[in-house]
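Batch manifest, entry 17 of 40.
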Amino acid sequence: MAKPAVTRGRRREAVMDGLVDLFLAEGFLGFNIGDLASRLQCSKSTLYEIAPSKEQLITAVVRAFFKRATARVEAEVAQESDPVARIGTYLDAIARELAPATDEFFANLQQFAPARDLYSENTAIAARRVQGLVREATVPDTPVNAAFVGMVTAQVMESIQRGEMEAMTGLDDATAYHLLADLIVKGIAAQPDRKSR
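Output type: structure tokens
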């Protein structure tokens, strides 16, 4: 028989997963605690165990989304041995994690400062990760400058995060990440020394 603490932990994890999926599908600013409890078929007290207020609950859920996404993205990258392909794998995996997110979710992220800050913080972390992957994939003494590619990638990722990319191109975040991955991978794969190997 499961211990009560273990059962509560599993229930909390299931509720958190449900909240993440609900927020991605419908946003979060339009819900109150009662609405969320009703949609997830749990008590308000279950939600208050996660966080003591709606604002803190939103922050906890958005943080859980990025934590879950990061774990899944890194698991995919760990399966890829080719350094160039690893870049595409990383950015494409990010795109897949963002794909279920609706316009409402992204609009709410921009409207709610703590969530916007989490998105910005995670974008910065991802940009640094891409810079490292680009360095690993770049053949020495070739025209590709890893620092430059990494910085351009970081700027594009920040533009995606701020909503500027969608405003200027009409591309949603997931599509923009896919296209960024394609651009970088094709550019690095075209290095003369790599073609001759």
